[in-house]
């Protein structure tokens, strides 16, 4: 068995964050964190989690940017980047001269009118436009309010260039498969724990995994009537998810 | 008979601009300019055309902003505006307190990260989000290069809020009907002349008008193989369109 979990570190309550990994690790289950975080490198992300008390290493994190780098190398793609400044080091090894594709992440303040027009011009200027998006989230909440997420800007570029983006990140099937490969575990032996009904639960199930939705974070009661996605189980929080899984081993 | 035409003033060669209206006006045909221009008020737009030698009045221009104002008043909608600064005066008579909808135009530099998040927050905060878009163009060309048009940002907000925008402007049927109403002419007696295969030709035909595509401006040879839209005729330029129409009267 193994458990993949996706805590959005910035919003996790500390007690749960510290609670989860020791119980799982002591059980012998493998653990992989699947995040769509694209506002920082995995190194930075892991440091933050460690600071919150997590026993976690970079290798235990599956994130869109490294997945995109693999894809870029495999296909000989040279990206024009429209991403957060703090994510740029993740692409250090990638040839970015004379771009033949655009990679878009949650660029936050970098989603300026000028930067969007520039990314658009690169894309529309290609004979066969390739747009790679690090996730397709609609929006997220920060302390100063709701913000448009990468998915919205992805849709803008898709429409303007009449292309369909390749999504690297949840809920893309390849992204979950990559997390499973990193653990060396087949999907039917893995359980996803997440708060997002579509990205976490739907994505994992589409890949053959079971998926548990926590009733914290992004969860809304209306999720339980979702027209397409039905979790294998609900739990009230991460600690309960761990208890439930361990009790059934 | 009547003729509706859509010159994008900023890009029209002067000789044709001056040529067209006298020939039409002398013929007794009615003339209505259908523009998706939303970077200036109709007043400013008409002044610019007059400066280029056009014999044209504000009443002869059908534009998205006044059409949107009619719609807002009819439905008691109070807009949050995400438009170009120069378009704001067009909404002077409209109650903008406590917004219950968002109106988006080609805001150009006003398409900042902060302004997009603000429009998004208004929209997602409404019980029943209403998004009104002054056109759905994908992009346009300016002297310093290609720019994303209002349609791209409309798609971003549509996706983020899971709504469908109401488009006021070409190719919306209601927009052409409004132009016809202003002339007092039924669609079968009107001819549209335009350079955009979808917005001009397709929109007008959908409304029951005939439509001629000029092989200037936005026209591309690939338009002649468009999978959905087939113009009633092609002409090499506006002058030829006028000659052809007058010779068949």
Automatic annotation (TrEMBL), chains A, B:
Protein keywords: Cytoplasm, Hydrolase, Magnesium, Metal-binding, Nucleus
Key word Signal present: no
Molecular function as annotated in GO: inorganic diphosphate phosphatase activity; metal ion binding; phosphatase activity
EC numbers: 3.6.1.1
Domain of life: Eukaryota
SUPFAM superfamilies: HAD-like
Catalytic activity from the UniProt record: diphosphate + H2O = 2 phosphate + H(+)
EC supergroup of this enzyme: hydrolase
Location of the protein in the cell: Cytoplasm; Nucleus
Classification via InterPro entries: HAD-like_sf, HAD-SF_hydro_IIA, HAD_sf, LHPP/HDHD2
CDD domains given in the database record: HAD_PPase
GO cellular component terms given for this protein: cytoplasm; nucleus
Keyword Lyase on entry: no
Cofactor(s) the record lists: Mg(2+)
PANTHER family: 4-NITROPHENYLPHOSPHATASE-RELATED, PHOSPHOLYSINE PHOSPHOHISTIDINE INORGANIC PYROPHOSPHATE PHOSPHATASE
Family classification: Belongs to the HAD-like hydrolase superfamily.
Function: Phosphatase that hydrolyzes imidodiphosphate, 3-phosphohistidine and 6-phospholysine. Has broad substrate specificity and can also hydrolyze inorganic diphosphate, but with lower efficiency.
Official protein name in the record: Phospholysine phosphohistidine inorganic pyrophosphate phosphatase
Organism listed in the record: Gallus gallus
UniProt lineage: Eukaryota, Metazoa, Chordata, Craniata, Vertebrata
Name of the coding gene: LHPP
